[in-house]
Amino acid sequence: MKHLTIAGCRLEYRDIPAAAENRPPLLLLHEGLGSVAMWRHFPDKLAAATGCRVIVWSRAGYGGSQPWPQAFQPDYMHREAQQALPELLTALGIERPVLIGHSDGGSIALIFAGTFPATPRALVLLAPHVFVEELTVASIDKARMAWASTDLPQKLGRYHQQVEQVFRNWNDIWLSPAFRDWNIEEYLPRIICPVLAIQGEDDEYGTMRQIEAIVEQVPGARLIKLAACGHSPQRDQEAAVLAALSEFIAGL
After folding, report:
1. CB hemisphere CA count around 52 (13 angstroms)
2. Which pLDDT value is given to residue 159?
3. What average pLDDT does this structure show over 128-148?
4. Could you give the CA distance from residue 192 to residue 79 in angstroms, rounded to a whole number?
5. What residues does 183 pair with on adjacent strands?
């Protein structure tokens, strides 16, 4: 694990070097309860499959990264996309990356690409959120109950130094009335890079309307709908996702 400092905040990251020349760097953006460690072996397998440099990091407050001094707010994904991510790219000397985002990470990638359309080489979105659905809220409420009644705190505690804060920030924001109108569709028509959106048919945190909204509003966007797959395609259908990403990236 390596570390860098952005705006006075020490962040952890992994940087897997490229195995082939003239390949775009791949930057992985984790989900709402994710971290570097929660990607498990996927970054290594992705690097082996594509030959690309793969960078994966824990956002502020997640994993072993220090939290931002500012309070967690409903615009946290906008702050990550429009402030933290540009600083990270500059600090690592990365130009024109392929952003690969899971869940919240996919939403952050969409906001970034809509704000800085000339920067990303492409987007790969794994179960992204574009707007809030009742299914999402209901599942996050179930997570709240699981936190209080199961060993979920201990399980998540393996991946986060400040696990209570990580869970409460995510859970409280998504369940707050102020977040019900959260919607990032305004960024979609501004995206000009190639986009691949992947979602499981059994996703407990979103319906297919999430990725369908993307293909309706981003010219040329491609969709893959995976059977027997929940909210984490890279885990539930790892081989299919690696194959799809390898083909997509090679086509760039």
Report:
1. 28
2. 97
3. 97
4. 21
5. 131
